[in-house]
Amino acid sequence: MEINRVFAGLGGLFGAAGIAAYAAAAHSTSGHMATIAPILFIHAPAFLSLSFLGKLSRASYLGGLILILGLIFFIGDLVSRDFNGDRLFAFAAPLGGSLLILGWIVVAATAFKALDFKRD
Fold first, then answer.
1. Model-level pTM?
2. What is the largest CA-CA distance in the chain?
3. Residue 81: how many CB atoms within 10 A of its CB?
4. Is residue 115 over pLDDT 60?
5. CA–CA gap between residue 8 and residue 103 (Å, rounded)
6. What single-letter DSSP state applies at residue 89?
7. Residue-wise over 61-71: b if at least 16 C-beta within 10 A, else e?
8. Partners of residue 57 on adjacent β-strands
9. Does the chain have fewer CB atoms within 10 Å around its N or its C terminus?
10. 76 phi/psi in degrees, rounded to 5
11. What span, in angstroms and rounded, lies between the C-alpha atoms of 96 and 83?
């Protein structure tokens, strides 16, 4: 079975970024890196799993795409606050968090056969 190389690569990058965030948190007075690190670590193995699931169903692939957007907005906002002293844009973190919740719900929905959109 083939894997989705983009999701597999993102899994590796999220793991590496999680380590970097933990290192930054150890040397930072801001609490954002300590928040970012576990979020990235949670999603690293998830994307390694999605690299297989994304080839099985469109729903899990869609869930992965929604998770990517959620991470970009949520993590991007926290990083922007640390490095620029300001938000990425208004409501970026809540939008990202909402997308993360939605993405996980879509991935969970693939467990139900009736909601799974099989690829041809």
1. 0.83
2. 51
3. 16
4. no
5. 17
6. S
7. bbbbbbbbebb
8. 118
9. C
10. -60, -40
11. 19
